[in-house]
Specification:
This protein is mainly beta and about 150 residues long. The chain contains one helix and eleven strands, in the order αβββββββββββ.
Length: about 150
């Protein structure tokens, strides 16, 4: 799938839903939903401002916010988290399509002892982003659906 097709889908995102699963029992199991405000900074830079509610499987509910920056780099996509602001981005990874058209990280993101990886796919009306977080004490999966 060409980067232009993925980029157009990213530009049109307005909402999200996600499910998180933890295989280590740290309490990160649950579901969330919210809105996404997409700002087109330049033709090749999008900001995703995500906000909504997340409910743990225990029943506890909390608000969440995230700010991501997507950058189109020729035939790659770069993803950064802007938790420290736009001048101090946390680089997550660049993504490229594999031979089957599934977008994957070029190299996983390492944060201390944890390894973050992701795959990005499109279906008819949605964008699916699946995260894996693995480490000595972590084994989590988060499935995002953007629409």
């Amino acid at each position: 799938m060409p980067v232009s097709q993925v980029w157009e889908r990213l530009r049109g995102v307005t909402a999200l839903h996600f499910k998180s699963q933890s295989h280590t029992g740290i309490g990160w199991e649950g579901e969330g939903a919210g809105v996404v405000k997409v700002s087109e900074i330049t033709l090749d830079v999008l900001i995703f401002e995500e906000s909504g509610h997340w409910q743990q499987s225990s029943g506890k509910e909390m608000r969440f916010t995230n700010i991501y920056r997507w950058t189109k780099l020729e035939e790659l996509l770069k993803l950064e988290h802007l938790r420290f602001g736009p001048d101090k981005p946390v680089f997550l990874f660049e993504m490229a399509p594999d031979k089957n058209g599934v977008w994957r990280e070029v190299a996983p993101h390492l944060c201390k002892q944890d390894c973050y990886s992701a795959i990005l796919q499109l279906d008819d009306a949605r964008l699916l982003l699946d995260w894996l977080v693995r480490g000595p004490t972590r084994d989590e999966a988060i499935s995002y659906v953007y629409f």
